[in-house]
């Protein structure tokens, strides 16, 4: 009887025995190196890619260089587009706009202004080179608009027989006895043309002379601010 019981208790199922031997138990640390198949499956499940130490740094450097090249290309393109189509910096050469503008002042010119609306009286504009004028780019003030009649009598400007108020003129430079052309006109301005003059009337080559009324197509844009030197900063 005892021998039978002993044989019964010592008999162990081989499968259970294998499980008992390989089970690490709850307090046993798991070594991932001992199970390469499980480690590979974990990497596949997460989708992570672990660098193998061969070529990672060069690829990262190439990517950074490529990104910076794209940024620089975009910046240069934006700057060119801005200069060609939107805003451009010009510097004043000469004294024809004294004392509103001074020699070597730097101004910003909005090149889109007159794509949105027609020129207005009093606008300070940059013009392309005109026939009979030695300056390459001119900067003048719009005085008369299309359809208006301009006349100058004793240095006083009349628009449609009404005196034009010109607070921008410096009386120390322009006066009834010193204005360049004391008398001019009358002249009716054609469609899509403007009559321009410098604020320093005695020292300005403008529409009173060889330049004549200016076609809209010759207007580069409207100068709207003096940006340099800083002491001359002002909106125009």
Overall structural class, as computed from helix and strand content, comes to alpha+beta
Total strands: 12
The string of secondary-structure elements, in order, is HHHHEEHEEEEEEEEEE
Question: Which radius of gyration do the C-alpha atoms yield?
Answer: 42 Å
Q: So how many helices?
A: 5
Poorly predicted runs: 1-54
Global outline: elongated
Largest sheet: 8 strands, antiparallel
Ends apart, CA distance between termini? 120 Å
Global mean pLDDT = 79
Helical residue percent? 25-40%
Strand content: 15-25%
Verbal overview:
The structure is a single chain. The protein has 236 residues and is of the alpha+beta class. Helices cover 27% and strands 24% of the residues. The chain is built from five helices and twelve strands. It has helices at 2-10, 14-22, 36-46, 56-86, 113-116; strands at residues 87-91, 106-110, 124-127, 138-144, 149-153, 156-159, 162-163, 184-188, 193-197, 214-215, 219-228, 234-235. Strands 1, 2, 3, 4, 9, 10, 11 and 12 form an eight-stranded antiparallel beta sheet that branches. Strands 7-6-5-8 form a four-stranded antiparallel beta sheet, with no helix packed on it.
């Amino acid at each position: 009887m005892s021998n039978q019981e002993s044989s019964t208790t010592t008999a162990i199922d081989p499968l259970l025995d294998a499980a008992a031997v390989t089970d690490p138990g709850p307090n046993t640390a798991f070594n991932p190196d001992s199970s390469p198949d499980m480690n590979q499956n974990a990497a596949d499940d997460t989708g992570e890619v672990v660098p193998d130490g061969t070529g990672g740094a060069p690829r990262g450097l190439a990517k950074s260089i490529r990104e910076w090249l794209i940024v620089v290309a975009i910046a240069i393109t934006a700057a060119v587009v801005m200069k060609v189509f939107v805003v451009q910096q010009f510097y004043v050469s000469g004294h024809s706009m004294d004392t509103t503008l001074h020699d070597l002042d730097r101004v910003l010119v909005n090149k889109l202004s007159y794509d949105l609306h027609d020129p207005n009286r009093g606008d300070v504009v940059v013009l392309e080179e005109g026939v009979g004028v030695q300056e390459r780019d001119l900067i003048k003030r719009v005085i008369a608009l299309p359809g208006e009649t301009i006349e100058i009598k004793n240095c006083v400007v009349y628009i449609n027989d009404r005196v034009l108020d010109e607070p921008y003129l410096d009386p120390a430079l322009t006066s009834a006895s010193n204005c360049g052309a004391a008398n001019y006109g009358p002249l009716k301005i054609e469609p899509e043309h403007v009559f321009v003059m410098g604020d320093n009337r005695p020292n300005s080559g403008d529409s009173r002379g060889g330049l004549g009324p200016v076609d809209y197509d010759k207007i580069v844009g409207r100068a709207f601010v003096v940006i340099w030197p800083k002491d001359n900063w002002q909106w125009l």
